[in-house]
Amino acid sequence: MSIRFDKLGVVIAAITAYGAFVAPFATFRANRIVAGEPRSILEALPQPLGLVLLAVLLAAGLVALFKTPLVVRLGASVVALLSLALLIGVAGSHLTPEGNTFARVSPASGFWVLIFAFTLLLADVLTRLQLSPVGRVVALGTAAAAIWLLLASGAWDSLSILKEYANRADSFWNEARRHVELALGSLVAAVLVGLPLGILCHRVEALRAGVLNVLNIIQTIPSIALFGIMIAPLGWVAANIPGASALGIRGIGAAPAFVALFLYSLLPVVANTVVGLAGVPRAANDAARGMGMTGWQRLKNVEFPLAFPVILTGIRIVLVQNIGLATIAALIGGGGFGVFVFQGVGQTAMDLVLLGAVPTVALAFAAAIILDAVVEYIATRKSTEVAAA
Amino acid sequence: MKAWIPLLLRLCLLALLIAFLTNPLWFEPLLKPLTQNGAPAIYNQGSLMSLAIQHLRTVAIATAAAIVVAVALAILVTRPVGVEFLPLSRSLVNIGQTFPPVAVLALAVPAVGFGEKPTLIALFLYGLLPIFENTLTGLTTTPANIVEAARGAGMTGWQRLLKVELPLSVPVILAGIRLSVVISLATATIGSTVAAKTLGEVIIAGLQSNNLAFVLQGGLIVAALAVLIYDALSALERMAAKRMGQVAA
């Protein structure tokens, strides 16, 4: 039996070697805004943990390099990722001088490169395993639980991003709630308006091109401008319509952000509803008509269920897009995780930027995986139903 | 006769855009009602024209880099050598699309500093995805009988790629580039939050000084640029499709 290299493994092993031996593992800073000093794995960790980490990385890199069974590759990537996650916390407490509350230790490029390498390996294994939709959600849940455990155990408390969090725990959860409210609320509003509008566009051909063109043009307006433009009409509403300001509608803040997100969300919802309804086979519609179904019954029992997976794909696009765009709301005082991102950029405090950016990425990522799984689950169930019928 | 109306509308939009960029003061009376307390109605901290050119330059550099890398990657994963990477690259593209632009931008700052560079990185990463996906679609959906015929004619792998598969994929690749450029045009405005010189500067100045006229003019210039470029690339795509004997989608 000859030894065979895995092509992706060669790339992963090369990245691992760079991350472990060339790039710094952690950055030490005397306070939160000065420039950092790089620390390698052996400098950042107490012995023998540094050597243990190097051994784990070497072993996992070798597993990746050669053609090995998928289970072994899965194990290697998980062990490597867990060791990195645990030991970066250890590096935090090891590098921070006793009793010093100003010093900041953050993961440096080497750490991120290593995480990237083994996430690549893990992603490759998971792709090759061809997990079922339920399996993917379970994998996501496991990863989330592991991260939650690490956070709850305090293993990461000595890292700079969590020090930033500790200073703002209350406002963090407020902004988190606001972020989710903005993203989900505007999605719900867009579905409530977009579905009927899509159905109308499907039935009334004269409307279709006009509505879709207007929605397309709204998409070309850059997000920060649309958020800004909304300030004027909502300010007018708050000033001139009795009761509006009592409802929390103001020219700046969450209301214009909500309306802007809503406007961006309309196109994917309406367009996918139109595409989904147009894709309903004529035969199915004719059969329903032959059975004496009214227009409303056909819509409810035939067209809508058949178009649903496509509509859901539109909703998935909107949700992921909204979670990202809601960060812009902070620029007009609308809150959300963007508050930390833009504060951090303003203060050149990158840990604060991370405090806003990391949860946003995690939310968007989780939303994409869950909704993709739901779309696939519904689509496969539908095709087996059709096959069974 | 009717077919001329959209073209005429676009030419008007182009003329309006050029007029606004070269002589913004002509439009001052239109924007004046949006300002308060005698604030300036036209952006006065730099020339709109040079900001627009910088904006387009940033988008062009990032898109050019994205085209080269995305097309090369797509070619690699559809050859026998790289076919192992195909499923992984598909999932990476899907994962990459979930990263919000603001997050990418902000995370790039510690690595490369403020200014144009983080914007270029964010735009490059964002531009990769649609182009990669479309090139992949184009290369994997080339009709098998055509590839067979090319093989039968004695073409090598390279010749098939350069003379058959890539030319047939050009319309789909162009569609990906179009999508990527439109996204980049809008995303580049966010770059001004990390001090890149783009039209976003006008919008942000407006947000900071509560000057709606600035926000509106910045937003409308970008939107007009996006609509015009989108249409120009669509026309290019139709021409390419016609040359390939395909019906435009």
CATH class of the largest domain in chain A: Mainly Alpha
**In what range is the share of β-strand residues of chain B?**
under 5%
Identify the CATH architecture of chain B: Orthogonal Bundle
User: Residue share in helices of chain A?
Assistant: over 70%
Named CATH topology of the largest domain in chain A: MetI-like fold
Please describe the biggest sheet of chain A, giving its number of strands, its sense, and whether it closes into a barrel. Answer: 3 strands, antiparallel
Q: Give unreliable regions of chain B as ranges.
A: none
Strand order of the largest sheet of chain A: 2-1-3
**What is the fold-level CATH name, i.e. the topology of chain B?**
MetI-like fold
Shape verdict of chain B: flat
**CATH superfamily of chain B, called what?**
MetI-like
Number of DSSP-assigned strands of chain A = 3
How far apart are the termini of chain A?
Answer: 50 Å
Structural class of chain B: mainly alpha
- How would you characterize the largest beta sheet of chain B? none
Oligomer: heterodimer
Per CATH, the class of chain B reads Mainly Alpha
The CATH homologous superfamily name of the largest domain in chain A equals MetI-like
What does the average pLDDT of chain B come to? 84
